[in-house]
Amino acid sequence: MNKTVKEILEWTLCVVIAVILALIIRFFVGAPTIVKQPSMYPTLRQDERLILNRWIKTSNGELKRGDIVTFESPSKTFVASTEADLSNPVAKYENEPKSIFGKLIYYVLEINKTSFIKRVIGLPGEHVKIANNKVYINGEAIYEPYLEKGVLTTSLNGAYIDIVVPEGTVFLMGDNRPKSTDSRCFGCVPMSKIESKVWIRFWPFNLFGEVK
Predict the structure, then answer these.
(1) Residue 116 is inside which H or E element, if any?
(2) In this predicted structure, what is the pLDDT of residue 116?
(3) Is 36 among the catalytic positions?
């Protein structure tokens, strides 16, 4: 093997290792992202840059009310009341890839994969009810200081507005309630579909810091 070929092979190996390490860090530790929708306004605005903490997925950590998370978009983002199963109010995921290569492309490289950003509102076993333009947990209206003044929480014609959150799932909503497609419309999201917690906003610089 001549010197040139050896150098090419060594550089190729270095690049492959670097790519693999980058993917591992992105999938299991943390990753940057851009806010693309207004559903979390005013907490998050479109085009803001965030760093996501993916350790929650790696460690099977628990979530608490108020956490802002990213998750895989359900295959059906609106369920009519006539077809909703309120005894099992869980979001549907019916378009998942079957092959190992397809899963690699979808889950690791995240090609053709859509994710949402929402806030945890209801935890497993809790009774969530949307009524009187407010959110009630186990019969008590919750305090939501992150909402913009005057914002009302309505049903959005969604089916899941008076449910008990099943075990292993969470009830999620955006802070911009009139413009958020969330658990009111598609049901509770399985913990296995939670990808990360929103951690740090690094752009714009004047808002740099932890996101709450």
Answers:
(1) strand 115-122
(2) 96
(3) no
Report yes or no: 65 and 172 within 8 Å, Cβ to Cβ. Answer: no
Catalytic residue (one of 39, 73, 180, 183)? 39
Q: Is 197 a catalytic residue?
A: no
Looking at residue 178, its amino acid is P
pTM value is: 0.88
Whether the CB-CB separation of 70 and 52 falls below 8 Å is answered with yes
Handedness of CA 190, 112, 27, 173 (dihedral sign): negative
Q: What is the mean pLDDT of each run of 10 residues along the chain (212 residues)?
A: 69 70 65 92 96 76 91 94 92 88 76 92 98 97 95 95 97 97 97 93 93 90
Q: Which of 57, 118, 193, 197 is catalytic?
A: 118
| pLDDT score recorded for residue 59 | 58
DSSP 207: G
Strand 209-210 relative to strand 194-203, pairing = antiparallel
- Sorted by where each starts, the structural domains of the chain and their CATH numbers stand as 31-210 (2.10.109.10)
